[in-house]
Design goal:
The protein is mostly helical. The chain is built from 2 helices and no strands.
């Protein structure tokens, strides 16, 4: 015949053993696969098919004339927004 104290003690011992097993398993996982920070070396990188034109002989990518035109237009729109916002603030400050 076991007392409540002995039953509680037995349950605590079983729980401690389960926690010890979990700790050991987690430590084993950490040892087998240490994570390194930073960019992986070339041999470990995944090769991705390029969606753009291949680089030229000197290794630099070139932008097409149409691409440069699109970039120029986009930059003009950005500056127009900045100038319009600055002009709007100047008007509201002067009034």
């Amino acid at each position: 015949m076991t007392t409540k104290r002995e039953t509680a003690l037995q349950l605590l011992i079983e729980e401690r053993e389960a926690i010890d097993r979990a700790i050991t398993a987690l430590q084993d996982i950490g040892v087998s696969a240490p994570r390194k920070r930073g960019r992986p070396p070339n041999s470990q990188r995944i090769a991705i098919a390029p969606t753009h034109e291949l680089p030229t002989k000197d290794g630099r990518r070139r932008v097409s004339a149409a691409g440069r035109r699109k970039m120029a237009e986009a930059q003009k729109r950005r500056w127009a927004k900045v100038k319009a916002a600055a002009k709007g603030k100047a008007r509201s400050a002067g009034a």
